[in-house]
Structure formats: C-alpha cells, structure tokens
Amino acid sequence: MRLIALFLALFFSAHAKLTVAVSYPYIASLTETIGGENVRVETLAQGNWDPHFVVPKPSLITKVRNADLLITNGADLEIGWLPPLLNRAANSSLAQRGNTLELAKTVPLIDIPRDTSRAGGDVHAEGNPHFHLDPHNIPLLADAVAGFLGRKDPANAPLYQKNLAAFKQQWNTRLKQWDAQMAPFRGKEVVQYHPVFNYFLRAYGIRSVATIEPLAGIPPSTSHTMKLIRLIQERRPCCIMHDVYHPTKTGEFLREKTGIRLVVLPHDVGAQKGSDDLASLFDTLIQALK
Ligand SMILES: [Zn+2]
Description:
Elements: H1 2-16, E1 18-22, H2 25-35, E2 39-43, H3 58-65, E3 69-72, H4 82-89, H5 92-95, E4 100-102, H6 138-152, H7 157-182, E5 189-192, H8 198-203, E6 207-211, H9 222-235, E7 239-242, H10 249-258, E8 261-264, H11 278-289
Parallel strand pairs: 1-2, 1-3, 3-4, 5-6, 5-7, 7-8
C-alpha cells in the first residue's frame, strides 16, 4: 500500500510540473533556476547552433507540442524557425493569450534601424536581439521569468520569488567582479563577425568598429574583406570577437594579413566547453578576451 501511495504521489507530482518550452539554453538556465523543482524545461536550440537559423526537426515539434508555456527571446531572433515549428506543433495551450513570454519586451533594445527596408541587413529589423549578452540585463530577464511563472502558477509564486531573490543576490556579486575584470577594456576597439556581442561591448565601453559580415546576415565578400584589412591596419583594434557557429575562414585570413588576434567566444550557455550555465558563460567570455 505504502508503495502504491508513493507511486501515486510521484505520478501526480510529476504531472503537476509545468512544462516550459524555451528557444535557447540561456533561457533554460534562467527558467530552471527560478522554477526549480516545479518546472520541466524543454530547450529547442542548442548552445553551439546559430540562433538565427535553427532546423525545425521533428524532435523539436514534439517538445513544443507537449509544452504548457513558451518563453522566447523575441525581437525577431526566432522569426525564421519558430513560427513554422509552432504551426506544425498545433499546441492550443500555447495559442492562448498569456501563455507565451517574449523576453525582448522586458529589456531596452539597441541598434534599432531607422528605416524598415532591411537596408541594415537581412536580420534584426526590430533592433539587436542578442540582449542577454549584457550581464546587467540578466536580472531584468530573471524578473520577467519569475513574474511569468508566478502568474501561470500562483500557488508557487512565493517560491519563484524566493528563487529569484537568491539568484539576483548571487548575480549581483558576480556583476561586480565582471565589471572590475572588464574595466581595463574601456575605450578599446574590436571587430566582430556578426553584431552578436554589441550589448556586452556597450556594457563595458568597448567599440565595435566593423563586422566581417558586410551587413547583418550577409556573408563576407572580397571587397568588404579588403576594406577590413585596411581598417584593421589603420585602427589596430585589439581583436576579432568571433562566434562559434560562423566559419572562421575570413577571420583567419584577416589574422594572417594583419596579425590581429582572433578569439572564438561563446554566445550562449553550452556554446563552448566550460560555459555550462549563465555565470560560466560570462566567465568564459571574459577569460578568453584577456
Ligand atoms: Zn544576430
């Protein structure tokens, strides 16, 4: 009898969990931290994938189909892959108002294009969507996740708020350490492949003087690469901050021609070895830059 009671208790507690689908690993990290035992998180993209172009595999459709709630990055980062996935999953719960949280609505965006003609490139028509790479934005995102989970599961709202407070306390200690570690970088200049690190750079007073992509989402061209060689020779930026998912061929060519340092950096949790959670993502990023 006792075993049956235990089984039933486990069965019902397992089913009482909220299943939250999230688009990217950094959102999973936040949701697991705030939700604790009460949520089951299903992550769609992997950390070393290009976040703009995720292949909507059948396994991802299943994850979306079984979810009670959905948390997205937003600002068009998922525009190429999540809407078709949601269509195919046909999850009526996610179609209901209020069951989806778009994190882009909870932080101020930068790099908002002045016109909507997509003249600034093929992606980022809403502004730069890579806002989680400013570590100062993470507490705002954590607030949003805790508020969302609390609205959807009021019985456990106090627990989510408690987890949020503990997380923010730890995070604020880390923020002070990172701010101190990054202080010597103020005023430096860098080149990126894609403007993925713009929020991080802005947070620490670093200037991105060029991207290897001529425009966001457009692959490098010979004429643009030639311009970059001249610019690097003139301005001597400290390094190329390169993501893990674009080919490093042009970056290596620029290094060969100019001697510039090429640093491949994680943009999300799990993008590189050692970046297993949100705090170690920033640890890895900052260590690699030094
Ligand atoms: Zn982007």
